[in-house]
Amino acid sequence: MNFSDSEIVNSIMTDQGHKAAASPEQADIVFVNTCSIRDNAERKVWDRLKYFRSVRNKNQQDQIVGVLGCMAERIREKFLDEEKLVDLVVGPDAYRDIPNLLAQVDDGRKAVNVILSLEETYADIAPVRTTGNGVTAFVSIMRGCDNMCSFCVVPFTRGRERSRSIDSILDEIRQLSENGYREVTLLGQNVNSYNDNGTTFAELMYRASLVDPEMRIRFSTSHPKDFPDELLSIINERPNICNYIHIPAQSGNSEVLKRMRRPYTREAYLSLIDRMKEIIPGVALSTDIITGFCGETEAQHEDTLSLMDIVRYDLAYMFAYSERERTLAHRKFEDDIPEEVKKRRLSEIIELQMRNQAALNREEIGRTHLVLVEGESKRNAAQLSGRTDTNKMVVFDRMDYQPGEYVKVRITDRTAATLKGKPLGRSSIQAFSQSEYADLKAEPVRV
Ligand code: SAH
Ligand code: SF4
């Protein structure tokens, strides 16, 4: 989401005639786009700001430093209390005001705008995508969140939920397709509640998939509480909608989920996973897990481990609970799990996930996937890397393939996080879906 927001700010700055500097150290203006989700995310930002203060003291005395995003919204004017740290503070809904705020700073004043909006979606601002790979892009479809999970600061820093108009989303996808992009990820904190005057997320996905049949469509994040079967059928039926769902569980215990204000039980979550696997054969799943939430007992932690073992996630983002001010958990519950217990539980969760992931990756050997090439492999310039429809990273010999092309790849080996394969020739979503796709969806071939 921040990556996508930075592209909006890039667009606003480019419109004002600014250009990207060779490095942040040489820039006249530095923006630090920030995250407040956990304390360690904020700590990194403080370190970064202090680093820029030292750069300023050394050789860039006039450098302007701005804090953008969630931390700006959370900490507000207090950023200005620290000497020579920050000149402007801009919340997630105030990016259009940046030119005015910069003018204030030029006048020698500090500038702050942290007003949250009920309408702002930046729908008319075309993001400037200079830092991406030119093949995959994020498209923001909604902002804010109304869910109020008890641990989460997002509703306070990003404000009320609002959906961007479907027409502006489809236009952006069309333009990306014309500019050679091959994949978009539709972004929102809770995409299932997308609602543009009655248009649902399922409808948006369907129409997005029609824009360009050779454009892959992904989405993130969906909430387990309102995932309709209709959407699952659309994902299954449209070849260019990827068979990969990020569906955060947070915990495997119903009581903990209740305290988290996640309105589903362990059983409801597991039956949703069953429906996903049934309606979309071969679907890949990923999750977010918080460990050590207020009052979590050892038995409740075990429930999370067992849930992860039942689902067998292809990928998981796992976090130790970090208490955030203003949230319901901060007001109502005690952050009573000692740090070392959180750490131990987190490492148990990570270990289990790594084992499951390794087993799932072993099962991939021998399968043929359609891989969208994203660019050169980080480790080896003679190889390319790209993703399968199921979002797994694959590396293979470069031959004469190019980023942005679809290549049929047979998986021959794997490491902890990556699959290795042998390229079998160029293909397309449509060609692949009529041949191999059917096999891929059949029972996995075990070797
Ligand atoms: N809207 C998304 C999540 C956005 S935040 C969703 O509901 O799925 C990304 C992840 O950060 C969350 O899913 C949660 O696992 C984690 N997270 C949020 N608040 C946290 C906190 N206070 N401590 C630790 N992890 C947290
Ligand atoms: Fe936070 Fe819950 Fe909203 Fe996700 S759905 S952003 S976890 S409040």
From TrEMBL:
Binds 2 [4Fe-4S] clusters. One cluster is coordinated with 3 cysteines and an exchangeable S-adenosyl-L-methionine. Its EC number is 2.8.4.3. GO terms for molecular function: 4 iron, 4 sulfur cluster binding; metal ion binding; tRNA-2-methylthio-N(6)-dimethylallyladenosine(37) synthase activity. The keyword Iron applies. It catalyses: N(6)-dimethylallyladenosine(37) in tRNA + (sulfur carrier)-SH + AH2 + 2 S-adenosyl-L-methionine = 2-methylsulfanyl-N(6)-dimethylallyladenosine(37) in tRNA + (sulfur carrier)-H + 5'-deoxyadenosine + L-methionine + A + S-adenosyl-L-homocysteine + 2 H(+). Residues 362-425 form the TRAM domain. The lineage of its organism: Bacteria, Pseudomonadati, Balneolota, Balneolia, Balneolales. This is tRNA-2-methylthio-N(6)-dimethylallyladenosine synthase. Keywords: 4Fe-4S, Cytoplasm, Iron, Iron-sulfur, Metal-binding, S-adenosyl-L-methionine, Transferase, tRNA processing. GO terms for cellular component: cytosol. The gene is miaB. Its cofactor is [4Fe-4S] cluster. It holds the Pfam family UPF0004. CDD domains: Radical_SAM. Catalyzes the methylthiolation of N6-(dimethylallyl)adenosine (i(6)A), leading to the formation of 2-methylthio-N6-(dimethylallyl)adenosine (ms(2)i(6)A) at position 37 in tRNAs that read codons beginning with uridine. It is found in: Cytoplasm. Residues 131-359 form the Radical SAM core domain. Monomer. Residues 1-107 form the MTTase N-terminal domain. It comes from Cyclonatronum proteinivorum. InterPro entries: Elp3/MiaA/NifB-like_rSAM, Methylthiotransferase, Methylthiotransferase_CS, Methylthiotransferase_N, Methylthiotransferase_N_sf, MiaB_methiolase, rSAM, rSAM_horseshoe.
